[in-house]
Amino acid sequence: MDLEELTSKAKQIQEEMLEEILRVNANTEYLRRFLHGSTDKELFKKNVPVITYEDVKPYIERVANGEPSNRTFRHFKGVEDGKVLAFLNTRPLYKILSGIPVAPVITSFIMTDYFKNWSSKCYASPDQVILCTDNNQSIYCHLLCALVQREEIVSIFAPFASTVIQAIKFLENIRSGDLSEWITDRGCRDSVSVILRGPNLELADVIEHECSQKSWEGMITRLWPNIKFVQSIITGQISQYIPILEYYSNKLPLISVGYSSSETLLGVNVNPLCKPQDISYTFSPNMSYLEFQEEGNNDEIVDLVNVKIGCSYEVLVTNHFGIYRYRLGDILQVTGFYNTPPQFRFVRRKNMVISVFMEVTTEDDIMKALNRARVVLESSGLMLMGFTCYSDISTIPGHYDFYWELKAKNFEGIVKLGNKVMVKCCCVMEESFNALYRGFRNKNDSIGALEIRVVQEGTFDYLMEHFISEGGASASQYKTPICTNSPEVLAILEDRVVARFFSDKTPPL
Predict the structure, then answer these.
(1) Which helix (H) or strand (E) holds 348?
(2) Which interval of the chain is the signal sequence (predicted)?
(3) Residues whose CB is less than 8 angstroms from the CB of residue 400 and which lie 6 or more positions away in sequence, other chains included
């Protein structure tokens, strides 16, 4: 561009320059105070103050002093100096017929030199605990190491939020501040014994005092007073654990940093402190080739930058390792753009639906209905600890069955299943479903009354342990199916049903 053209388009060039600056920097710590992530130019002129060097001096000094710009940790003071309670463990390697060793993706990462070189610097547990292949022994030892170093723990990490909930249950078994006799893994015993340095009566008294309280609300912050956040996957079907985590953690920030699969890393959360329900992931264009097929339109496939805001897509992955245009099975909705890459929120797994007639109830529909039912449960001092559901067509008409595991908020409280409360939960869920369901439900010969079957406490832990032992899956990657038609799963659940409830009225149209 020559001088004449440059000077004749000064206004346009200046406007485009501001647009580019805001696209790149709207989510920086400084501008977010005024723009809250917006790139609107008029909002910039209205809200961002005119400043001098003294106003930005603290930020410049932070850069000069070498402060890292990590998008998560920069929000919390002292995180770099503390330790992480990380619930990680491995599964045994096994070989397929060709002789190639196979392991879950987390196990493969943990076995790398890259992981081993820095894990001991930030994690409360020694590598021997992380390398333990027994899930129960590993969790117990993770907790014990973190309790001994309770003042140093600044965060909790687990691949899925369900693992944190499972770990809290293990606190019931830690009383003496010493290794229990059932910890037989030699690596765990030797490495943890070094940290414990014998029985710790002071620690035992602290644990005993906290765990003997009637309520376990805020237990995480009570045991680890300097903890600042919990980092885990909390989207999709895992979002069912958010209320339980908030209860135990005294509503600490729940952070979901990235969105990934076994096939590839897909994106990162550039606003890690957002509310769980507002999480969107910015797709990384440099990890794999990504294409998107719009839901309900099998004829058109678009590239990463050509998706449309508000539309839902299934992801197709082509990576460096021999996967080409692979259907990931996740349905995502475009929420915006960060520069040119799109931002998505996770909606549901494809085909993760239940139906008994002509209606379709999706994972998203189910989670919304459960969130409304939780409000009813909490008013009665109960928490939903786990669930799954299936389409029961053994009856005429067919109906939805939900298996619920409940727990009293008070630690030693008894789960009292009031008929009025449980029937209301059934009705509230039906009212939350879509118009097609409600319409067919009002026709008595189409869909029958929704049923909740309450199972014994520990049922979903047993289900997890069953499939880990049968299939060799990793506990840190296990997810209870949100809906199922597996005869094996249903048989396990049915054997533990303690009460049944039905909605007593049809939902409004």
Answers:
(1) strand 342-349
(2) none
(3) 354, 356, 361, 389, 390, 391, 392, 450, 451
